[in-house]
Every structure is written in structure tokens, then in C-alpha cells.
Write a structure and sequence with these properties.
This protein is an alpha+beta fold. It is 16% helix and 42% strand. The longest helix is centred in the first third of the chain and has 14 residues. Keywords: Isomerase.
């Protein structure tokens, strides 16, 4: 199993090779961390990681926030939802599990292997879960309110293993 430092280094190198610029890195999350891609590259990011999606139809508010999530083995992000964004995720390395529900009750999980995608609607409850090894997920935030784009404060946590 790769170390956290190695998996972050590998992901940054692969993004650089693809011409993407990482504008923010957070490797201090208790579940792993993320890399934020330059917003000006959202169209290229979407075209590369979500080529089957029509860019104009996923660009709801004129703003997309591309990110790479790196989920540590056995770690779970909070059971959460958002008021001002929908999300699209694609597993690009390893495997991850995803729990979803339209209610506060956590539903069954589905496993996403490399190449698998899931769309999360605004308000849909969800949780990303690391499995046996690091999972790497390309993510697009679809901001649903152009006047108040979603941010890290737009997380309603229903349950969190880390007490946040």
C-alpha cells in the first residue's frame, strides 16, 4: 500500500502531466485529502475525466469547481449533503464505496471501481468510503446558486467519524 505522501505526489504528477494546475492542496484531512484544480481549467478537466457529459448542461451556474479526492484505506468522509451544489464523481484510481440516500438514513453502499461514475443531486445525502487501498476520485462541484457558490461551509454533516 502506498504512503499518503506517495499517493499525493503521484496524483500531482499525473495532473501536471495532463496540463492541470493544482491551486490548493490539503493532505491534512483525517480521511485523506484533496487537490483543487484551477477553475479556469474546469472545461478541460470535465472533458478529460467526464468526456460523456455535455459541458454546457453540467455547468449549471457558470461555475464548476474541479477537485481530486484522495481517500485513505478504511476511512469515511462524513455522512453529508449540500444546499448549493450537486456533484459528479468518477473513480480514477483504486476503488471506493459510496453510500447515498434521499433521507437522513444512510443507505447501502455501492462500490466504484476505476472508471465508474456517480452523480449526486443537490440535497442528496452521501458518504465516500475508502476500501482496502487508497481511492482517487475526480470530482466536479456543480454550483446551483450562481450568486452564492458552494464552498466548504456548505456541508451539512449528519454523522462524522472525526467529530466535526
Amino acid at each position: 500500500m502506498q504512503s499518503q505522501e506517495a499517493i499525493f505526489s503521484q496524483a500531482k504528477s499525473q495532473l501536471s502531466d495532463l496540463g492541470f494546475t493544482v491551486v490548493k492542496e490539503d493532505s491534512e484531512r483525517p480521511w485523506g485529502g484533496f487537490l483543487v484544480i484551477d477553475e479556469s481549467q474546469a472545461k478541460e478537466f470535465a472533458s478529460h475525466f467526464f468526456p460523456e457529459e455535455d459541458f454546457d448542461s453540467i455547468n449549471i451556474s457558470g461555475k464548476l469547481s474541479p477537485k481530486i479526492l484522495l481517500v485513505a484505506p478504511g476511512k469515511r468522509l462524513s455522512w453529508q449533503y449540500h444546499f448549493r451544489r450537486a456533484e459528479i464523481w468518477r473513480c480514477i484510481e483504486g476503488q471506493v464505496a459510496v453510500a447515498t440516500s434521499l433521507t437522513d438514513e444512510e443507505g447501502d453502499t455501492n462500490t466504484l471501481a476505476k472508471g465508474d461514475k456517480i452523480k449526486l443531486q443537490q440535497g442528496e445525502r452521501h458518504r465516500l468510503i475508502g476500501l482496502d487501498d487508497w481511492g482517487v476520485v475526480a470530482e466536479i462541484w456543480q454550483h446551483t446558486d450562481s450568486d452564492h457558490p458552494s464552498d466548504e461551509a456548505d456541508i451539512v454533516r449528519l454523522q462524522d467519524d472525526f467529530g466535526r
